[in-house]
Amino acid sequence: MNISFIDIQNFRKLKNCRIHLSEKETLLVGANNSGKTSATDVLITFLDKSVKRPFSVTDFTLSNWKILNEYAKSWSDPTGKINGDTLEYWQKLCPSIDVWLDANVNEVDKVAHLIPTLKWNGEPLGVRLIFQPKNLGELKIQFVNEFKEAEKVMSKSPSGELSLWPRDIKDYLSKGKLNSQFEVKAYLLDPSKMHIKQELRIEQTPMEVYPFDGIFKVDVIEAQRGFTDPNSSENTQSNGGLSGQLKKYYDHHLNPTDLPDVDDLGALESIDKAKELFDEKLNLSFEKALGEIKTLGYPGFNDPDIKLSSRINPIDSLDHEAAIIFDTQKRGFAGLDNFSLPEKYNGLGYKNLIFIVFKLISFRDQWLRVGKAQKRRSSDDMAIEPIHLVLVEEPEAHLHAQVQQVFIRKAYDVLRLGVNNKLTTQMIVSSHSSYIAHEAGFEKLRYFKRKPALGVDQVATAEVIDLSAVFKNESKMTDDVIDTEKFVARYLKTIHCDLFFANGIIMVEGVAERMLIPHFIREHYKDSLNQNYISILEVGGAHAQRLRPLIDALSLPTLVITDTDATELIGDKNKKVRPEKAKGYGIGSDTLKQWFNLELKNLDEVIDLDDEHKIIGTVRAAYQCSISVSYKDGDKPLEVIPYTFEDALVLSNINLFRKLNNSTGMVKKMHLAFDKPSLNECCEELFKELKGSKAQMALDLLFDVEPKDLCIPKYIEEGFEWLKQELNEASSDFIDNVGKAVVVAKAID
Q1: Mean pLDDT, the chain, whole residue set
Q2: Which alpha helices (H) appear in 119-209, and where do they start and end?
Q3: If DSSP codes are grouped into helix, strand and coil, which group holds residue 242?
Q4: pTM to 2 decimals?
Q5: Which secondary structure element, helix H or strand E, spans residue 201, and what is its range?
């Protein structure tokens, strides 16, 4: 048995999204404010009964309050139509979560209460948990009374501008009313409609009990933001230090004083002997002091004597800062020595890793009722839940990049150590770490895509993309599709997957662009592009289009900077040539031909395309175009077409390159090209020298020139302007009454 997928509705910006869970690990990734934290919060709030996290009015999708407020406003208007006076209207707008289970027919005893029909043959089973009004009629009466009372008082305001609580139903519920007036109810779902958004039937009644008791156990490791410096007030042993975790584990699973058995007798005898010896020493030490008390008349003849009795508790012995000692010399010491440090002085990353791993061990052993927990089981707690759902938030806190990768590689193995194969463990990790995403693997990633507000009174929402299905959604799994999927997976393994956390993407062909474009952005777009997280991918000229299914799925504003690769057909072969118009030249760029469907167009037609035809979806191509160049002072400007990024950069910075007389390598060769008497001869020389090391050219240029002094080639500048506009529109949180996108300050996720 396992959880197949989860549908989330009306929870914060998760208006309507589906998260498919892998059989083992599922990694939630996405840019800041994309909804990852909301996803873990909704799972904790609805599914983790041990936490009992209360709901807030801000847990409702904000745009839903407009409708709910209108419902409540109509209640107090005797002349108008009453809206939203039945539960079905509210259910469509309240936070809810649909959990779909895959179970076998031989597990019917576990899921019998979830089967909606008598004819069940192992189909997925769905349950909706919804946070809805307990009694809508009572809520209506109480709100109307409070609202009218506020109106009566406000009517007496001299200015007429007084605003009192409650202004609307949201305001009413925000003052401690929400969790008393609302409750979580469970409803069975129709398996035949699992692929669509289901609406509950009007006559459908909720389940009488919590549906997942005995089916799965939920454990949570929230983001470890409390690990600070050793002297921090947050860093206390009782609040979650490793010694605190060990203490809890020992008490629950190992404590010999709790439900002792034969194996505990040796420890118990040692504790009793230690107590006896310590008490003897204790009373001897206090004999003089207690004797002084006797001089005051106590104890008298009939008064009991004072004796001191210690309590030696193995649990309490772990509750101090030296309970965990780190041996810096790795010598296997006994007790303390000069080369040991207490827990709080160990590095934050190391400590956080140990903390998380030990929490996972504790979760596993609590689930399996290991040790003393086995003896504590009641008649209602005999069966182990078949599913163990473990949620881990931002495990990367304080962890070195390599340790992050070790964690995601080993964490699931820790949860499965000694676990029967008939039991299922599913771990969900939310992360901002490209290192963890890199190590986890492409097929385990669930990408949270931020969707901007699309209209007035709407807010930004989120969509979840199952990246394992990006290529499987192709109509036919051809050999080319399979090869493409392999290429993308391997490519992502060679880079750190920061594109999954980016606001926008720039794809480039070569090393020179990858080196210099960040400088262009930093120096020339300080207040726009530089304020966004942009992932720059170097993919070459022959493979960029293979990333298209992934780029389309992410739907991020993407600028593809490529070369036209002008060609001339000689015989039956295409030869690279310096681009010129009116020569009948073709284009050799696979990116332009396959991604942007330009395989039937010649060089002239491609260069003359307007901006509209350079855009497909959220992707724009930027390639060399005609530029006007005055070769010498007083010369009439002439139109030339660069071949690559490098000669485009040179021709856009003629005066600068003419001055680089002390340069070396390709930069020097580019400098010497300006000794040619004409612009045409100069361009021919540049084309010839482009066969050298372009990476070395970029390095030499960074050494010789201040990046801020470089002019951006025209075609790249046009691409940057488009990207700037797209990123601005994509960041809109809502649309105001005049149709203008508005961005507000936001917290992460």
Answers
A1: 83
A2: 136-154, 169-174, 178-181
A3: helix
A4: 0.80
A5: none
